[in-house]
UniProtKB/TrEMBL annotation:
SUPFAM superfamilies per the UniProt record, alphabetical: LmbE-like (SSF102588)
Record InterPro entries: GlcNAc_PI_deacetylase-related, LmbE-like_dom_sf
Official protein name in the record: PIG-L deacetylase family protein
Pfam families referenced in this protein's UniProt entry, alphabetically: PIG-L
Species of the source: Thermanaerothrix solaris
Length: 217
């Protein structure tokens, strides 16, 4: 087993298009770091134009609470689902404001392998809004093609269980295959196998901003 590369961020921002995206892509990582750093979770659409999703907002807050993220660290925007490409400039300005007020050291957003129009728009505009920041891409299994994790973060069994429990708060989506706990666990095991760890959350690298230092410690 190789030596781990340690990374950190005093402020870490997770950005998703819809409720459930962040938990699906980053739930285990959030559970792993939530007590070590300042986290902000930003979802651009609350999906409330669809009457079948009326419980989604509260499910999102409960899901985040399971991961340890309080309600005041969760932002829900009002952009209309499936119409993000038409609001591209407004989304850019929204994310620029997040950057100015929160000033994150690390940003997690949808992978570029994601073909959902809303997801793709968020990623493109995030790369513009956070130009001087490291940006990593997470996978939402239902809408990405060709995703392969190139940045793997070891997580624990407890983190895995919290991710599964967080996703279980989405009663609205309980019959969707990608909420199956077996798929969640299998994905984390597979990512772990890639880097010879029991479990890992996997991301792709959209931008790394770093400084190399040599240390004897």
């Amino acid at each position: 087993m190789g030596q781990d590369m340690y990374f950190y961020g005093r402020r870490v921002c997770f950005i998703g298009a819809h409720p459930d995206d962040i938990e699906l892509g980053c739930g285990a990582l959030i559970a792993h770091i939530v007590n070590q750093t300042e986290i902000l979770c930003v979802t651009l659409s609350d999906n409330q134009k669809n009457p079948e999703l009326k419980n989604l907002v509260e499910e999102h807050y409960r899901s985040m609470a399971v991961l340890g993220v309080p309600k005041d660290r969760v932002i829900l925007g009002q952009f209309e689902t499936r119409r993000f490409p038409h609001a591209r400039q407004e989304i850019l300005e929204y994310l620029i404001q997040i950057n100015r007020t929160f000033q994150p050291d690390l940003v997690f957003v949808h992978t570029k392998a994601d073909i959902h129009q809303d997801h793709a728009t968020v990623t493109e505009e995030a790369l513009r809004a956070f130009r001087g920041t490291t940006v990593l891409g997470f996978d939402v299994i239902r809408s990405s093609y060709g995703f392969f994790p190139s940045f793997l973060v070891e997580v624990t069994e407890e983190d895995v269980e919290k991710k599964i429990a967080a996703l279980a708060e989405y009663k609205t989506y309980s019959n969707r295959y990608y909420f199956d706990p077996k798929i969640t666990r299998a994905t984390l095991i597979r990512n772990g196998a890639i880097c010879e760890r029991p479990y890992a959350e996997g991301f792709d690298i959209l931008r790394i901003v770093g400084a190399f230092r040599c240390s004897d410690s």
